[in-house]
Amino acid sequence: MEYRRLGRTDLRVSAICLGTMTWGEQNSEAEGYAQMDQALDQGVNFWDAAEMYPVPPRLETYGRTEAIIGTWFARRGGRDRVVLATKVAGPDPRFGFLRGGDLAYTRVNLRRALEASLTRLQTDYVDLYQLHWPERRVNCFGRLAYDGDPAKDGTPLAETLAGLGELVAEGKIRHVGLSNDTPWGVMRMLQLAEAGVGPRPVSIQNPYNLLNRTFDVGLAEVALHEDCGLLAYSPLAMGLLTGKYEDGAAGPAARLNRFPVFARYSGDHAAAATAAYVALARQHGLDPGQMALAFVNRRNFVTSTIIGATTPAQLASDIASLAVTLDPAVIDGIEAIHRRYTYPCP
Q1: In the beta sheet, which residues pair with residue 83?
Q2: Closest CA to 172 of 136, 135, 214, 128
Q3: Would residue 341 show up in a list of annotated catalytic residues for this protein?
Q4: What angle do CA 11, 17, 20 make, to 5 degrees?
Q5: DSSP assignment string, 295-317
Q6: What angle, rounded to 10 degrees, do the helices at 328-340 and 268-283 form?
Q7: What superfamily in CATH does domain 3-237+301-324 come from?
Q8: How far apart are CA 93 and CA 201, in angstroms?
Q9: Hey, how many other C-beta atoms are within 10 angstroms of the C-beta on 35?
Q10: What is the DSSP letter of 243?
Q11: Which of 15, 240, 254, 293 could form a disulfide linkage to 321, CB 3.0–4.6 angstroms apart?
Q12: What is the CA radius of gyration of the chain?
């Protein structure tokens, strides 16, 4: 396993991060345990969760993923072998059932959310605590046209960062990170941290895959210059880039068939781009999913690639992508497809 430094901290995390958002919905508790065992055996020491997991979030399953991780720690031990990340949900009218619907990033709400997560996780601290999405309106989760209003941004970033700082000072959080954020948001938080307002963000968790390379535009430069690396989520575009959805081959249990609400990577343009990438992989004798992951793994602004699997075979294949090297002809082919289908999915 390859390990990389998390921001400017003393933590070294595996280049593959174990995503957990299916546990408690698509995967049972026993299957979650098996994934944690398998990942740790393969040297994957970095696990990512969120208070709202599993997704799609429902009142009946809210917090279940963290609870599965917590019972694994209680039964297996090994908390010191894992760099554990989780996330606090922000305001969203769709998730009014979370914590009574008051999801602003205030000091009080951050503390309440974290302490509930710690209880479910059965641990005294998390290594990385992330704001799941900005409280202000930004281009994320498929939105590309900016229509924000600074007067409606909500909790001041300084208050949020200071609140996180209090939790760091108490030892309940080791480091903080951002997610689904923008170049302005990252740089503003870094600026506030440098002014002594609160802890310096060490990472940003955003989508990054062959169908969605918007991170390249502005955030990649920020990540490199500021040592605030990308934790790349959805590196397989919800499984599309494995090729398993071609010709209706994926069964009803597959994520996009089971949950039609996930339409982010739908559409003719995305389908055409996906078909081109899958064909390129097969032309070069590569597994399409491993080619897609290998591309993300080797981007110099990526700290770790977050993989989500529902079976042991998928997990093994995803971890093995670290050993895949893409030769220049494959990279040229990827860039040619990217020029033809630039950002088919936001």
Answers
A1: 46
A2: 128
A3: no
A4: 125
A5: HHHT-TTEEEEEE--SSHHHHHH
A6: 170
A7: NADP-dependent oxidoreductase domain (3.20.20.100)
A8: 27
A9: 27
A10: T
A11: 293
A12: 19
Query: How high is the pLDDT of residue 145?
Result: 63
Going by C-alpha positions, the residue among 322, 223, 333, 319 that lies closest to residue 282 is 333
* Cα 169 from Cα 30, distance rounded (Å): 35
Token code pair at residue 173? 């959080």
Token pair, residue 228, equals: 């605030």
- As a whole number, mean pLDDT of residues 32-38 equals 97
Which one is predicted more confidently, 122 or 148?
A: 122
Q: Which two tokens stand for residue 45?
A: 């020491």
> pLDDT tens for residues 190-208?
999 999 999 999 999 999 9
Domain map (residue ranges) of the chain: 3-237+301-324
- Sequential DSSP letters for 96-153: TTGGGG-----HHHHHHHHHHHHHHHTSS-EEEEEESS-SS--S-TT--S----GGG-
Which helix (H) or strand (E) element contains residue 232? Answer: strand 229-233
Tokens 């993300």 map to which residue?
296
Name the catalytic one among 53, 208, 277, 341. Answer: 53
Q: How many residues does the chain have?
A: 346
Count other Cβ atoms within 10 Å, centred on residue 158. Answer: 14
